Amino acid sequence: MADYGQPLSAPAPSAVTPAVGGSGGPTGATDGPAISTLRKQYLDYLGAKSDEIKEQRSARHYYHADQWTSTEIAELNKRKQPVVTYNRIGRKVDGVVGLLERLRQDPKAYPRTPQHAEGAEVATATLRYALDVSNWEGKSPEAARHAATEGQGGIALSLVQGDHGDPEIDLEEVDNDLFFYDPRSFRNDYSDARWMGICKWLDEESAAELFPEMGDKIRNLIETGGEFTSEATRDRSTKWVNVTSRQIRVVDHWYRWKGDWCWCLYSGDTMLARGVSPYRDEKGQTICRYLMFAAAIDHDGDRYGFVRNLKSAQDEVNHRRSKSLFNLLGRRMIAKEGTLKDVEQTRREAVRPDGVIIYRDEVPQFDDVKSQAEFEGQVALTTEAKNEIEQFGPNQALVGQAPGSSSGRAIALNQQAGLAELGPFIVSHRQWKLRVYRAVWCAIQHFWTAERWIRVTDNEGLAQFVQLNGVGLDPNTGQPVMVNAVGALDVDIILDEGPDTINMQADAYEAMKQLPEALAMQFPEVWLELLPIEESVKKAMRDKIRASQQPNPAVEQAKQIELAQNAGAVDETKSNTVKNIADAHQSMQPQPAEAPPAPTANDNAQKPPSKSINYADLAPEAQAQLLAQAGIIIPPEILALHQARQAALKLAPRPPAQPAQPGNGQVA
Length: 668
Hints:
- It is built from 22 helices and 18 strands.
- With 668 residues, it is α+β, with helices and mostly antiparallel strands.
- The strands form 7 sheets. Strands 4-5-6-7-8 form a 5-stranded antiparallel beta sheet.
- The chain has 4 domains: 35-306 and 421-450, no CATH class; 312-420, no CATH class; 516-550; 615-640, no CATH class.
């Protein structure tokens, strides 16, 4: 909730608000509609949206378990019937907000041109840094809760003085009981609204601090009572408006004027400041600082939340529960007139476990059977009403707690079915976040011009610093160039959508558990990534596994020796094979005759000389047969190719011999 003791946040009086080119600056715009026109717009909203304002007020009360009227409470107290409140609406709204946080998606920048591909990562880191600084994770759920309860929610852009010479972008929560808008708007994103703003109280000191040049007019307003009240702020005004405190009601009114969004601060009929919006979109057009979205819009254009559909069931649960307890605390008796000495005393004794009933002639009868039937009927109808609330929105299937299979795929299918009922709300909330991200990025490009460093953290938990709008040297030319100039980055901001990594990780973990242990333990790093433990613990275990996988020098030396021994055994086998082939070749040569007779002269003249055949001269078929006898099978075609290659090498010319060089141990 906003701090009502602080000055109204607006860009007009802030010293950090820069001038907008072509518009005369945010505080320089003097033209625009009259204050009476702007005030009439605000009063028109209060009249046209009175039903919506009352419904929002009732929805806030129901969310906070204030679900009985004062008249109902008085009647129950008169009956001595207990006032029972089972606030299931509050739990349901909190469940919806929790579901949105569970489905949270971070913004991511994608380049529009190839030249800005590297700058997209810088834009993503810069945008996430700005959102973290403005506590986006705490303010986004509040806007969703307001929308789910009251029908609308949002944030307001704001500029605060920074320590880098340029303003910081801040995000402020918008309270629905202070917000007003064009009642002719029918769109969920308020894009068709011509004006909107907030109205809140300021004390004299805060107003004088915010507008020092308007001190006399502010005092005059307080003296003359220039303020007005509304149904929207009735909850607040009855509690913190003090007639002894000097306060004025200030309206921060944003409106379209001549194609631009402008703003004006006024109280009553007195203008305090006005100007042109300093915020712009991707196309350079001015935008409103209030970024709102609606949960649902009815046929009359009224915004409403989940409470409208759940209110009847919630009342039934409370009333029937109260009635059931009341029935248990009493007993219905049937007796003749004059039978009971004291009727009230008998009624009190009848409901006591140790009660004593005194009668004269006839025993009174108790209608316990009928009372029990009525009690059971009340309980059955109460259960049905409770189920009506429970089945809406987040349920066991939606949060992944449905009984049965715990597979990630099964959980994903159940969630898809459960999300269908919340589809319009989730879509509206998602589009609103996109508009916020793009508005913040455009503000960063427009206002962050000085050099700064931002700290970002990657997925592994490692922090690093990124320089923005710095000056460096071009490694090619040596000239000074801008480093990560955010104003020159042309990127498109989208939501980083992806699968439900938690469910997919659990699904993969279950699949790994089904594998045989011997096979599964072959992939220790895969097991480690799927374990549901913190990343820091995974990192320590991963480093230990990698250290254990480093080679041991002694083991590596033993492996080299073993490989050398195996190589020696192979060489020995090759030598034996060659020897066996040679022996086989030798056995095929003709053997000399034993003790041949001495040749004579005639014999030498008649017998031709003997001729030996070398293995290399054999035909390929003969060589294959010879090798087969030795146990070596080589096709003849391979042997033929080998012979052809050897013959080609013999015919190839050899390089000339190099002459010996002096000084190499040889004689020149």
